[in-house]
Amino acid sequence: MTFIVSLLLPLLAFLFWRPVNPLTRSQRRWRTGISLLLALSGLAFATLWRLDVFDYAVEAWIQLAFGWVLVMFILALAFVLLREAGWLLSRLLPRRSRLATVWHGVGLNHGAAVVIVLLATLGIWNGLKPPPVQERELVVPNLPVEMDGLRVAVLADLHISPVKRGWRTERIVAATLAVKPDLIVLPGDMVDGEVEDTAAFVTALAKLQAPHGVWLAPGNHEYYHGYTRWMAHFRQMGLGVLENQTATLTINGRTLALSGVGDLAALRAAPYMRGGLAPDLPAVVAAAKGSDVHVLLAHQPKQARAAAATGAVDLQISGHTHGGHILGFDRWVVAPANHGFVRGEYRVQDMTLFVSSGAGQWDGFTARLGVPSRIEVLVLRSARAVRDGNSR
C-alpha cells in the first residue's frame, strides 16, 4: 500500500499544475518539477523505510518525513478534486462564468500550495505534541450501581518511538495521574520499534498506578516489533498484560471482569509480522462468566460485532483508528475501513463500544487536523443510577 500510494504522488504533482493559466511553458515546468521532486522524495522515503537497512531510530524519522509528504498530497488531492468540480460547474453556467478562469488561475493554485504545506506541517505538530485530558460520561447499561462513577483512563495508541522520545511519555503519565483514575487501560499500540530501540522511552509507563490497576492488551504494532519480548518487558515494568486473558476486579463488593484479546493482525500472514496471537473471544467469555460486568480491551473496533454477538461483553474499549486523523478523511476513509467505527461511543446490539481518538499515532502518519489526540477519562455510569439521578 505504501508503494502504491507513493507511485501515485508524481501523477498528482503533474495534475496539480497542468491546467493552471496563465503560465509560460518554463513556469509550468518549474512548478511541476518542484512538485515532482517532492513527490519523488515521498517514494524515496518509502523505499528507504521498506529496505529496512537502517536502525529503527533512523527509520522512525524516515517514516515521519514520508508521512509529512503523504499528508501534503492527501490535501493536494482534495484540492484538485474540488478545483475540477468547481471548474466544471462554472463551465456549465450560462454565458461561461468567469469563475472557470479563477478555478484554473495561477493565484488560486499558488495560494493552495502554500496552505497545503502549512496545514501538513501543522498537522504533524498537532500529532507530536502531548495530548490533553478529556473527561466524558459513558453509560454502561449493566454496570452495577456500586460501580457508578468509576473513572477509567484510556491511553490508546501511544506509539512511543525514538521520534516521540521519553519526555512525551512523561507528560502523558503525569497528566493521567493528575486526574486520579480508578483504573487505567492501554488498548494496544503502545510502542513502535524493537525493545532495544524504544525501551528507554517507555520507562515512564512504570509510574502509572491506579487503585484497580494498570492493564493493557496488544495492538497490531506490537506484532511488528518483537511481540513476545515486548509483552515480557511490560510485565517486568509491573503492567498487567492481558493476552486472551481476564482479570477479575472487586469494586465496592461487586466484580468487574476486565479482558484483553489478541489483535486481528495475527489472522493475516505478512513478512513484517514479529509474533503475536490471534484473538480468542470464547476464552475470555468463559473466564468472565459469573462477573457482574464485563469490559473488553480489543485494539481494533472491528472486533465489536463479534464481541457483542457473544452477549457476554458489556463494554468494549478500542483504539486503532486514531480518531480518523483529519476531518473528512475520518468519515470517508477511516470509518469505512473499520466497520463504520472511528471515534466516540457506539451501541452494538446490547454492548457499548468506545473507540478512543488515541493519545498518539504512528510516525508514518502522524498528522492531525481537526481530530486532536486525547487522554480520555471515561466516567462509567450505571443506567439505573442515571435513571434514579444518583452517582457515586
Structure report:
The chain is α/β, with parallel strands linked by helices and 392 residues long. It is built from 13 helices and 12 strands. The strands form 2 sheets. The chain has a 6-stranded mixed β-sheet. Helix 2 (25-51) packs antiparallel against helix 3 and helix 3 runs antiparallel to helix 5 (106-128). The model has no long low-confidence stretch (mean pLDDT 92).
Q: Secondary-structure blueprint of this entry?
A:
Layout (H helix, E strand, L loop, with lengths): L1 H16 L7 H27 L4 H37 L6 H5 L2 H23 L4 E8 L9 E5 L10 H14 L4 E5 L7 H4 L15 E4 L2 H4 L3 H10 L3 E2 L3 E7 L2 E7 L20 H8 L4 E5 L6 H6 L5 E4 L10 H6 L9 E5 L2 E5 L19 E8 H6 L4
Parallel strand pairs: 1-12, 2-3, 3-4, 4-5, 7-8, 8-9, 9-11
Antiparallel strand pairs: 2-12, 6-7, 10-11
How many distinct beta strands? Answer: 12
Q: Largest sheet, if any? A: 6 strands, mixed
Order of helices and strands: HHHHHEEHEHEHHEEEHEHEHEEEH
Task: Specify the number of helices.
Answer: 13
Radius of gyration over C-alpha positions, nearest whole angstrom: 24 Å
Instruction: Give the overall form.
Output: globular
Helix content percent band:
40-55%
Key structural traits:
392 residues; alpha/beta; six-stranded mixed beta sheet; 13 helices; 12 strands; 42% helix; 17% strand; globular
